[in-house]
Amino acid sequence: MVTRTSRPFRLLALAVAALTLTACGAVIDGSKGHGEEKPGTTVPSIADVTALDDPRAWQGAVDINLPDPEIRPVEDDPAPQLPATVTDAQGTEVTVTDTSRILALDIYGTLSQTVFELGLGDSIVGRDVSSAYREIEDRPLVTQNGHELNAEAILELNPSVLITDTSLGPWNVVLQVRDAGIPVVVVDGDRTFDNLASLTQEVADALGVPEQGKQLGARITQEADAVRAQIAKVAPQDVTGQLRTIFLYVRGQANVYYMFGKGSGADALVTAVGGYDVSNEIGWDGMKPVNDEGLIKAQPDAVVMMSKGLESVGGVDGLLEQFPALAQTPAGENQRIIAMDDAQILSFGPRTADVLNALAVAFYAPDSLPAQDRL
Q1: Is residue 292 within 8 Å of residue 329, measured between CB atoms?
Q2: Which of 184, 192, 346, 370 is the most exposed place for a label (fewest CB within 10 A)?
């Protein structure tokens, strides 16, 4: 597991953002409700399915799109204790005096959902593209071209506070908002299992609802721990029985093909669902362009990737055509590809338990997934 001093998921989020913004229009788009989007479906609990005796016994690909999150505020309409003065993740002291018009923006929509779960969702006045669940989808977008912050759109909403991290850009937009006199609180950019509660608390403290933050942080952590305990019961304990897994980041239209390795954050995600992350074994550090040599050395049993990445190369057949070396590995021979909605797969926060559960079901009981998720 990652340690408190590591920053793997922050690095992964930043890398995805950087690759996305340079990918000639190929973007992570969390929007739903349009005709081309596969509807979300409920994934059964890993505790309620029959796991395969051998996780290598299945063939085929799965593409998971979780339904809109169930918003469960820890308190309805809490009364913020204002003014709230905090020192943010960048060491800046910020005083928030008004929470009537909140913007909470990051690359995966984690911060906006956190605000809703704290009970302050009615005060959110805008959204990023990854925040597309029904409670927020009527709020105006303040991002353009995927994840680019739009200063004019933000300032037009006259927010009383902006909560963000370093996953969105350009950064001068954030500085412009601060220069306009709007309190800007920059929270931890890490997405790890270790900071589920502390990240939630940062948001809650800035909005003057610290007690609600404690409750929500405890709930998120407990739910994630419960799923991880359930996964441990079905995942092979011996390394030889675990699925050798790689994480690919693909944007076919822009000719962007990366394999995320040791220290990227993808390694911790794979390990959390009981897979064997191959990157350490083959010395694949960080995020690097994928090549035939790396794929041949990895000999993956399974590939994890983002749904729009798989779509961008024409699905499983297109992926294997693009990478003939992958086709010669156990993952390619069995077309064992696990894709998940781009805005969900790394959205650590209130959805952590759901994401881990869905990936675990895909790893160990793929036949339990709804038919529309099996390719």
Answers
A1: no
A2: 370
Please give the model's pTM, rounded to 2 decimal places. Answer: 0.88
Q: What are 134's two structure tokens?
A: 């029904």
Verify cis geometry, omega within 30 degrees of 0, for the bond prior to 83.
yes
- The distance from CA 309 to its chain's CA centroid, rounded to whole angstroms, is 14
What would the DSSP string read from start to end of 336-348?
-EEEE-TTTTT-T
Q: Along the 375 residues of the chain, how does pLDDT read in single tens digits?
A: 323 334 555 556 656 656 655 544 333 344 443 334 556 778 999 999 999 999 999 999 999 999 989 999 999 999 999 999 999 999 999 999 999 999 999 988 999 999 999 999 999 999 999 898 899 999 999 998 878 999 999 999 999 999 999 989 999 999 999 999 999 999 998 777 888 999 999 999 999 999 999 999 999 999 999 999 999 999 999 999 999 999 999 998 889 999 998 877 788 889 999 999 999 899 998 889 999 999 999 999 999 999 999 999 999 999 999 999 999 999 999 999 999 998 888 878 899 999 999 999 999 999 999 876 777
Q: For 287, list phi and psi in degrees, rounded to 5.
A: -120, 115
